C-alpha cells in the first residue's frame, strides 16, 4: 500500500457545507493593481457605462472592483455548484510510486462535469447574472468548444437563450462538441457567418476562410450589442472570470488545510489565465500579504509563449479589435500559433491579473513542446486512470519534472497542480501522438517580432 | 432551495473507509439457483477444468460458486477502486423540481471515470486475477467500446498485454474509442480480421462484412486459447461480472443507510445484465431472505426486448457458438436488433442471474422506444447537468414515468436508478435526435420467432 494512504485518502472531498461561500478577489490584496482596461478610441479607462453596453451589469461591477477581497457567491450559483462540486483534490499515489519520488503530488481535478473542464465555474455565474438582469439571452464565441459547452449547460439551467459563434474549422472538425451544445439547447453558428456585418465582410474579403477566434468574438459582440435583451459573455482573460474561478483555489486550500498539508509548489497551465488565476488566487493572496511563500509555476505551450517570450504592454484582446485594450503579456493580437492541439492555450495574451503577478515576481513561467506534453499525458493516464486534456497535460509535465527533481535531491516537496479537464474530445490529437505523427514547433524570434508589431503604439506602450 | 436539501446533500459520498470490502454473491441467497452453464457438445454442466482453458482460474471459481455470500475484494483491487470510487449517489433535486413531483429521486452515477461507465468495476478485477495467475495478457471483444476502454485502463494499470477485437463497423465509426484504448496501450484489431481462422473464414464467406459482436467474441476466444499465457475475458452476462458489479449496489445501499433512506423502487437498464445485476444485488438479497420488499424494474429497448418478449431457455451466448450454453431470457443468438444507438443494450440474451430473478418474480421489466428515451435524456441533461449514455437513459425514462405517477397519486415514493455512464462517445446518436431524424423500430412477432428458431433444440429446451 502506498505511503500516507492510511492518513490521507486518495481523494479529499469537502462536504457541501465546507464549500466556499465567497469568491476571493486577489486584486484586493495587491498593492500595485493590474492596469485597467482602456477604451481603444480614447485610451482612457473603460467606464462602467461603456462596459454595460456589452457585458451584464453585475459582472461589470465585479470587473471593475479591485478592492473588495470577498464577494458572496449567490445561493442560486452555490446550488448549481453543488451539482458537480466540490471537485476532488486527488493524491497521485500511483504516479508517485511510478516515479519513485519522495515528492507528494496532489491534483485538483475539474473534469468531472459534462463540459469536461473548469469553464463551468464561471459560465454558471455569468448566466445567473444575465438572468437576474432580466436578459433574454447571451452570445459568445468558442474555439475548441469547452467554454461553449459549459455556457450551454449554464444557460439551459437558467432558461436563457444562447447563441454561440463557433470557429468554422472547429464546427466542422469537432461535430461532437457542437452536438453537446445543441443538446443543451444552444444555437451554434459557424463563424464567419452571413448573419453579421463583420462576418459578411470577412467572408467577402477571404472567401473560403475557416475562421478565427478573433472573428468569432467580433460576431458575438455584434449580435449582443445589436439585439434587444442580449449581452456578450467571455470565458477567460477577464478579472470577473478569475474571480469566479477562485472557487478552484479556495476548495484546494480548504482541502489541504483539512489535512494539515502545506504545498511547496503550485502548478497550472496558462492560456488566457482563467484556471491558473483561479487555482493560485488564495495562495497568491497569502504571498501578497506576506504570510506564506510558495513557488507558483505557470505552464504554457512553446508554440504560444506569451509569458516567457511576450511583452507586457497594452494590446487588443481579439483580432477583430472590437474589445477594450488590456495590459498583459502578449505576443500581439495578430500572432498565429502553429497548429497545436492545446486549443485552450492558443490565446495570444494573458489575463491582466496573472500578467501583473508574474511581472511582480510572484509567478514563474515555463514552456513545453507538444510531444513531451503528450508523453506526460500518456504516462499519467496509464497510472492515474484519467485521460487528461492536452491543456491540463502541460501542468502534468511540469509536475513530473518537479517530482523528478525531488528524486534527485531527496527532497519531500509537496506539489499541487490543476488538472483542468479531460481529453475525451481531443482524441484526434491523441491519435496523432499514438501514430507517432505529432510534431513540435517553436516560433522564431522573427515570428514573435512580427506578431508584436501589431501592438497598438501610443506613448508609454512602446515595444 | 429544494426540499430536504439541508439534511440530504446533493451527492452522498461514502468515505474511502466505508467502501465495500467484499463483493456480494446474490446466488448464495437464492433457493432456486440460476441454471449452470452447459457444454454445448455434451449438454453437461461445464467443469472448472473446461472453463479454465478459456478463463482465468480464480474467475472460474467465482463463476461456479453459488453458495458463498461474501467474497473478499483483494487489496490491490480496492486500491484501484479508490482511484475512481466511491461513485456518488446523487439526489436529483433539480429533476424533482422540474417534474414537480412528490417523489424523491436518487441516481448512482458510475460515469466519473475515463471508461465513462460501470464496466471498469469488473475490468480491474479480471485484470487483477489474470496478473495474479502470471498471465502475459488477455483478449476480449468490444462493440460500442465501453468495455474495451475499461479493460485497456485496467491492463495498463497491472502491466498486462491486451488484444481487443473491435467490431469493424465500430472501429471505423468510433475512432475516438479506438484511440482511448490505444492510448492505454491496447492493441485494437478490427473484426473480422485476417489474424484468426474464424476471421479469415468469415471474411471469405462474407466479403466486405462490417463484423458483429458474435464474430469478435469468436476471434478473441480463438487467440486466447491458442496463445501461451493468454486468457479471454468478458464484460457482461457472466456471474463473475455481476459479482464484481455488486460494488455498485453495496455502495448504493450503504449511502442510503447512512441517511436512513429506504427506496421503494429501484431501476436499472438491462442489456447483458451487468449493471442491473450489480445495482440490485443487495436489495434482491434482502427480498430473497424475506427481510424487505422493493419494486425492481429492468428497462430494455423495445428493439431488443429479451426479458419482455424473449423465451427462458438455454441458448448460445455468441453468434459464433463457441461459448458455453447459458440459460437465459433470449431472443436467439441469431437475432439482429434494428439499428439502435444503445449499443450496450443490443445483446440477444440476459444474464442467468437476472433471468432467474425475473422468472421468480423479483424483477419487473419494461421496454421503451429510442426517441422517448432520448427525450428523457435531453431533459435530464438540461436540468441535472450530466449528459447520459443512451443505455443509462432507458433507466432515466422509467424513473421519470414512475415520478410522474407519484405526481398523479401524491405518493412520496423514493426512486433509485442506476446512471451507468456518460454519452460523450454517443454524440452521433444525439446529433440524429437533435436533427429530428431518429426513428424507432419494434420487431414484429415474426422477427422474434425467427430469432428464436436458432435456439438449440434438446429435451427440456423446447421453445
What's the rounded overall pLDDT mean of chain A? 94
- Could you state the oligomeric state of the chains shown? homodimer
The CATH class of the domain at 11-19 and 84-116 and 245-452 in chain A is identified as Alpha Beta
Give a short account of the largest sheet of chain A. Answer: 7 strands, mixed
Structure class of chain A = alpha/beta
Q: Give the DSSP E fraction of chain A (strand runs of 2 or more residues).
A: 15-25%
Give the total of beta strands of chain A.
15
> What Rg of chain A do the Cα atoms give?
21 Å
* Overall form of chain A: globular
Widest sheet: strand ordering of chain A: 1-4-5-15-10-11-14
User: Low-confidence stretches of chain A at least 5 residues in length (pLDDT < 50)?
Assistant: none
First and last CA, distance of chain A: 55 Å
CATH topology descriptor of the domain at 11-19 and 84-116 and 245-452 in chain A: Rossmann fold
Helix content of chain A: 40-55%
Number of helices of chain A: 18
Report the CATH architecture of the domain at 11-19 and 84-116 and 245-452 in chain A.
Answer: 3-Layer(aba) Sandwich
Main interface by residue count: A-B, 47 and 47 residues
Amino acid at each position: 500500500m502506498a505511503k500516507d494512504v492510511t492518513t490521507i485518502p486518495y481523494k479529499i472531498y469537502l462536504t457541501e457545507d465546507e464549500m466556499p461561500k465567497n469568491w476571493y478577489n486577489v486584486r484586493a490584496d495587491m498593492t500595485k493593481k493590474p492596469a485597467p482596461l482602456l477604451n481603444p478610441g480614447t485610451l482612457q479607462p473603460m467606464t462602467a457605462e461603456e462596459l454595460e453596453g456589452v457585458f451584464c451589469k453585475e459582472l461589470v461591477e465585479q470587473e471593475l472592483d479591485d478592492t473588495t477581497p470577498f464577494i458572496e457567491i449567490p445561493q442560486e450559483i452555490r446550488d448549481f455548484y453543488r451539482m458537480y462540486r466540490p471537485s476532488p483534490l486527488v493524491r497521485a499515489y500511483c504516479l508517485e510510486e511510478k516515479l519513485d519520488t519522495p515528492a507528494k503530488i496532489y491534483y485538483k481535478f475539474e473534469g468531472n462535469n459534462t463540459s469536461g473542464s473548469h469553464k463551468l465555474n464561471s459560465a454558471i455565474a455569468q448566466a445567473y447574472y444575465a438572468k437576474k438582469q432580466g436578459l433574454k439571452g447571451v452570445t459568445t464565441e468558442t474555439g475548441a468548444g469547452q467554454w461553449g459547452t459549459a455556457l450551454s449547460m449554464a444557460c439551459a439551467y437558467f432558461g436563457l437563450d444562447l447563441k454561440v459563434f463557433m470557429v468554422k474549422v472547429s464546427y466542422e472538425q469537432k461535430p461532437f462538441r457542437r452536438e453537446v451544445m445543441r443538446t443543451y439547447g444552444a444555437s451554434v453558428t459557424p463563424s464567419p457567418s452571413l448573419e453579421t456585418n463583420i462576418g459578411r465582410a470577412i467572408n467577402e474579403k477571404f472567401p473560403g476562410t475557416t475562421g478565427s477566434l478573433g472573428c468569432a468574438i467580433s460576431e458575438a459582440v455584434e449580435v449582443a450589442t445589436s439585439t434587444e435583451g442580449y449581452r456578450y459573455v467571455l470565458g477567460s482573460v477577464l478579472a470577473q472570470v478569475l474571480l469566479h474561478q477562485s472557487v478552484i483555489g479556495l476548495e484546494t486550500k480548504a482541502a489541504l488545510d483539512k489535512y494539515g498539508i502545506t504545498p511547496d509548489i503550485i502548478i497550472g497551465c496558462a492560456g488566457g489565465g482563467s484556471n491558473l488565476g483561479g487555482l493560485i488566487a488564495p495562495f497568491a493572496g497569502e504571498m501578497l500579504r506576506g504570510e506564506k511563500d510558495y513557488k507558483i509555476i505557470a505552464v504554457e505551450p512553446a508554440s504560444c509563449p506569451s509569458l516567457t517570450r511576450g511583452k507586457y504592454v497594452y494590446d487588443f484582446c481579439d483580432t477583430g479589435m472590437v474589445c477594450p485594450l488590456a495590459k498583459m503579456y502578449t505576443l500581439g493580437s495578430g500572432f498565429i500559433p502553429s497548429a497545436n492541439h492545446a486549443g485552450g492555450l492558443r490565446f495570444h495574451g494573458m489575463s491582466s491579473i496573472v500578467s501583473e503577478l508574474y511581472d511582480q515576481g510572484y509567478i514563474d513561467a515555463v514552456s513545453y513542446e507538444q510531444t513531451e506534453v503528450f508523453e506526460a499525458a500518456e504516462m499519467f493516464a496509464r497510472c492515474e486512470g484519467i485521460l487528461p486534456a492536452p491543456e491540463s497535460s502541460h501542468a502534468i509535465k511540469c509536475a513530473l519534472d518537479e517530482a523528478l527533481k525531488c528524486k534527485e535531491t531527496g527532497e519531500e516537496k509537496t506539489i499541487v497542480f490543476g488538472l483542468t479537464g479531460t481529453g475525451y474530445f481531443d482524441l484526434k490529437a491523441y491519435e496523432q501522438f499514438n501514430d507517432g505523427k505529432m510534431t513540435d514547433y517553436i516560433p522564431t524570434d522573427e515570428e514573435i517580432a512580427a506578431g508584436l508589431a501589431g501592438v497598438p503604439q501610443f506613448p508609454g506602450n512602446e515595444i
